[in-house]
Design a protein that fits this description.
By secondary structure, the protein is α/β, with parallel strands linked by helices. It contains 14 helices and eleven strands. The protein is 47% helix and 15% strand. It is globular, with a radius of gyration of 21 Å.
Length: 330
């Protein structure tokens, strides 16, 4: 890339840092700790992707989603997924008007910019699949007509990892459509004390928007223009290849542990997430360390482990660590 274009890109990136810092600051005024969650949500938003958030109840997953929407001044809808939910409860349906003897479209809560799908695995597959077209095509079809969704369209789905009774595991095809899977853990002792002091018995702090949905769309375009050199792209492809054919990649100890590796959608997600993280760091180029930073969030829901891995009590995080340790930049 010519030097003039690089300098222009660096100027644009420098102009966005203040906005991104304001979003982070406002988010932290409401949500104590959870820096990895904040970073993951913002990364996926800048990629125009979607996230699935996994954690036990009470870890501020819903609050985090609402807070990010307020920071961006975006429209927000929350859908509580339940076993009796119907696809039309998400997408909308045609309503008959007896006075005019006509049908009109009543759009559902999916017609929003930020959508929180709370406990998405509580609803049956036909409801979960109602989100597929919306997430992939940014449109919804019902009553014989197709309706475009507003931009940006950002889906944040939550899951409870410990309670499996009365749940419907997401099909692999839908899981793969989430760009990232974020895991939320308990706060530290100091963070929990801060939660008690700041929020315990008090109303949640009110925050003002620091940017607009239109500005977020501009940031998404800017993130997609971050430079990725051929050597870094080759590194990404070899990382993904190692999850599919570990023995061919020199990782013989993983050969019996991985049943299915990441799809090409995972490679694209790794590229997009690395670019977004570079933008958040104020950099015009993606370097390998940024790829490693986003690898766990991008790959943990795309790698299916074998029975041998389960028998040896090896989890997907350990497998990704081994892949990152075993594949080097050329």
């Amino acid at each position: 890339m010519p030097r003039e274009l690089i300098e222009d890109l660096e100027r644009k990136i420098a102009a966005t840092i203040e906005t991104l810092d304001q979003i982070k600051s406002n988010f932290s005024r409401v949500v104590v700790g959870q820096e990895e969650l904040r970073t993951g949500l913002l990364t996926a938003l800048l990629c125009n992707g979607h996230v699935i958030i996994e954690g036990v109840p009470g870890l501020a997953k819903t609050l985090a989603a609402k807070t990010l929407a307020k920071c961006v001044d975006a429209s927000f809808s929350r859908i509580q997924f339940t076993p009796d939910l119907l696809p039309t409860d998400l997408t909308g349906t045609m309503i008959f008007n007896p006075e005019k003897n006509t049908f009109s479209a009543r759009k559902g809560p999916v017609f929003t910019q930020f959508l929180l799908a709370d406990e998405i695995n509580r609803a049956p597959a036909k409801v979960q699949s109602a989100l597929l077209e919306a997430m992939q095509e940014l449109q919804v079809t019902f009553g014989g007509k197709t309706y475009r969704l507003p931009k940006p369209f950002f889906v944040m789905a939550t899951q409870n990892p410990i309670e499996q009774e009365g749940t419907y595991p997401l099909p692999e095809a839908q899981i793969d459509r989430f760009m990232m899977k974020l895991k939320v853990d308990y706060p530290t002792s100091s963070e929990e004390i801060e939660i008690l002091e700041r929020i315990g018995g008090k109303p949640i702090p009110v925050i003002k928007p620091v940017t607009t949905p239109e500005k977020i769309i501009e940031l998404q375009r800017l993130a997609s223009s971050i430079v990725v050199e051929e050597a870094v792209m080759d590194y990404m492809v070899r990382l993904i290849g190692a999850t599919r054919h570990p023995r061919q990649s020199g990782l013989r100890d993983l050969g019996d542990l991985i049943s299915v590796g990441a799809s090409p959608r995972g490679t694209l997600a790794l590229l997009s997430a690395s670019r977004a993280r570079a933008l958040m760091d104020g950099q015009a180029f993606v370097h390998p360390e940024l790829v490693k930073e986003v690898a766990h969030d991008v790959l943990r829901h795309r790698i299916i482990l074998s029975f041998e891995a389960e028998a040896e009590e090896i989890d997907v995080e350990q497998v990704i660590d081994r892949v990152l340790d075993g594949v080097h930049v050329k």
